[in-house]
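FW: tagging you since you asked about this chain on Friday. Here's the raw sequence from the shared folder, copied in full. Didn't touch anything.
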Amino acid sequence: MFGRIADSRTISIWLIAYYAGTRNNSVIDATAVQKNSQDLVQYWMRMQQTVAAAAPSFAEFPPMQHAASFNLEEVKKKVEEIMKHHEGQ
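HL: got it, structure written out here
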């Protein structure tokens, strides 16, 4: 997928330049860009392989609760119910 959006070298050069800019570094070493570009592409390839290997486990072991089923409003209601139950004791 990394190479499908745009050329992976173009994306990695943009990311390296963006990161350099966030550090107020206006000088970019071309040799370092080449190496970092290759490292970034290899990293994304490994990440894709890791996610692809883990994906089948989600079908075999689905999450225990539904997405966004836990919220503080429900916890608050349960606490209030418990407090009402114990008020008379």
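FW: The chain is about 75% helix and 0% strand.
HL: agreed, and Residues 2-87 form one domain.
FW: great, closing this out.
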